[in-house]
């Protein structure tokens, strides 16, 4: 990870958060209750709220026995997870409840805790706050082996309607079942393109396994990944924030739900991904993004990690020739076209001829990521950059591809070195021998 690509706290605040996050939007993100109201209006799923406490009288008037067995007590303006009590079940004697850290808590304890919240014990500058009781979201089966008691969440950083970085946060014994890194939770980087976990940090240090076990933290596939990315972008649009972190939980039956929004997301997500956030923000800053679906498509095309390539290509290095037969996915359902492509390690980005892109419907406006200026012998021209899916030597590759006029060229696709990781290119091997080595007839 290069130092110049890292986003520091000052740069986050001065260059991005201050510039792109207006006071009105910050007020929304600062209040969990206001956030829930805004998201609900936009039809974005959030956990149910059973009760809101605005003044002390609300505590006395509430029937605490009307609550379900599991629930969460939260301050509206709490910071860093402070003031949150997660109740998992009723105690055996039915006189109280059991928290995720296996502590018994009584009705009087809850009343006193809510009163502390109202008096500002967990808010910034100890200013008066509101409290609420929210639906408890149990662990999804995909995370049961990795999370300690509590419910994991997924932090997705969104900028200019594009998800730029993501992290799975796993509760541990140290964190008391909470998904907060500074309390001892594990941060696991997630490949934006695939939803597969890559690297992990615990107390700021790189780890490979869940502490005390041999369970690998990389290679976990997060369910409903594309839905999560889209919900994160929709949350940005609803809140009006330009840069934010969206915290999402995965309900076992209801799917992804937004927990809260953060207009100054922490920077440890960079360590979990071993990638600089600043470079990614600058990469999408000036793009014209139409909607959430377009933003997700851009994110998947730009931010596929090297690790995800390795996960999907366990067979190791493959040898290819300078001329390869590839299979391209068209826009029509089930459409595939086989053509010969030139493997060009001198080019960075993959490109496709305008005629072939048009034939496969790839110039549809929903498939165009952005346009870019290119200089050639003919002068300056604007070229669309599209999302291209193709198979090379049995591997599926999803990538941005430049569209160019290649009518005079022999091969309509040039594959650049950006898409050649995991391949060994030998220009002296005839294509027939490469096919034979792969078991083709």
What order do the helices and strands come in, and which of them pair?
Blueprint: H1 9-20, H2 23-30, H3 32-41, E1 49-53, H4 56-61, E2 71-75, E3 85-90, E4 96-99, E5 104-106, H5 107-118, E6 131-135, E7 153-159, E8 162-170, E9 186-190, E10 197-202, E11 205-207, H6 225-239, E12 243-251, E13 255-262, H7 269-273, H8 277-284, H9 292-302, H10 306-312, E14 318-320, E15 323-329, E16 336-343, E17 350-353, H11 354-359, E18 368-376, E19 379-392, E20 395-404, E21 413-415, E22 423-425, H12 431-437
Parallel strand pairs: 14-22, 16-21, 17-20
Antiparallel strand pairs: 1-6, 2-3, 2-6, 3-4, 4-5, 7-8, 7-12, 8-9, 9-10, 10-11, 12-13, 15-16, 15-19, 17-21, 18-19, 19-20
Helical element count?
Answer: 12
Give Rg in angstroms. Answer: 25 Å
The CATH topology of the largest domain is given as: D-amino Acid Aminotransferase, Chain A, domain 1
**Assembly form of the protein:** single chain
Basic shape: elongated
CATH superfamily of the largest domain: ATP-grasp fold, B domain
Q: Can you tell me the CATH architecture of the largest domain?
A: 2-Layer Sandwich
Number of domains: 3
Strand-residue proportion: 25-35%
Helix content: 10-25%
CATH class of the largest domain: Alpha Beta
Sheet bearing the most strands, described? 7 strands, antiparallel
Class by helix and strand content? alpha+beta
Strand order of the largest sheet: 11-10-9-8-7-12-13
Strand count: 22
Distance between the first and last residues' Cα: 43 Å
- The overall pLDDT average reads 90
Unreliably modeled segments: 308-315
């Amino acid at each position: 990870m290069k130092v110049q690509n890292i986003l520091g706290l000052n740069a986050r605040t001065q260059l991005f958060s201050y510039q792109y996050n207006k006071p009105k939007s910050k007020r929304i993100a600062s209040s969990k209750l206001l956030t829930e109201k805004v998201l609900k209006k936009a039809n974005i799923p959030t956990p149910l709220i059973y009760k809101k406490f605005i003044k002390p009288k609300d505590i006395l008037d509430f029937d605490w026995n009307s609550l379900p067995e599991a629930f969460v007590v939260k301050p509206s303006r709490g910071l860093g997870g402070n003031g949150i009590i997660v109740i998992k079940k009723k105690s055996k004697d039915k006189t109280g409840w059991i928290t995720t850290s296996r502590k018994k808590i009584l009705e009087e304890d809850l009343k006193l805790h809510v009163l502390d919240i109202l008096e500002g014990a967990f808010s910034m500058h100890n200013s008066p706050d509101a409290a609420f009781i929210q639906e408890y979201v149990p662990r999804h089966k995909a995370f049961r082996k990795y999370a300690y008691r509590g419910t994991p969440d997924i932090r997705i950083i969104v900028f200019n309607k594009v998800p730029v970085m993501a992290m799975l946060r796993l509760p541990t014994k140290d964190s008391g079942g909470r998904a907060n890194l500074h309390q001892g939770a594990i941060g696991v980087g997630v490949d934006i393109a695939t939803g597969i976990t890559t690297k992990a940090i615990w107390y700021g240090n790189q780890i490979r396994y869940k502490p005390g076990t041999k369970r690998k933290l990389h290679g976990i596939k997060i369910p409903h990944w594309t839905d999560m990315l889209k919900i994160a972008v929709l949350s940005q649009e609803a809140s009006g924030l330009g840069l934010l972190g969206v915290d999402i939980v995965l309900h076992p039956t209801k799917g992804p739900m937004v927990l809260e929004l953060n207009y100054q997301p922490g920077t440890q997500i960079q360590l979990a991904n071993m990638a600089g956030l600043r470079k990614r923000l600058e990469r999408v800053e000036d793009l014209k993004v139409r909607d959430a679906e377009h933003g997700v498509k851009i994110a998947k095309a730009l931010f596929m990690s090297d690790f995800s390539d390795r996960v999907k290509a366990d067979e190791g290095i493959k040898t290819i020739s300078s001329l390869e037969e590839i299979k391209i996915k068209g826009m029509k359902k089930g459409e595939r076209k086989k053509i010969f492509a030139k493997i060009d390690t001198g080019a960075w980005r993959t490109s496709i001829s305008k005629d072939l892109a048009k034939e496969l419907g790839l110039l549809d406006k929903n498939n165009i990521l952005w346009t870019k200026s290119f200089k050639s012998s003919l002068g300056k021209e604007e070229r669309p950059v599209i999302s291209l899916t193709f198979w090379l030597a049995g591997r599926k590759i999803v990538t941005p591809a430049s569209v160019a006029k290649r009518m005079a060229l022999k091969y309509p696709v040039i594959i650049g070195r950006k898409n050649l990781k995991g391949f060994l290119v030998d220009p002296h091997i005839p294509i027939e021998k490469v096919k034979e080595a792969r078991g083709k007839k």
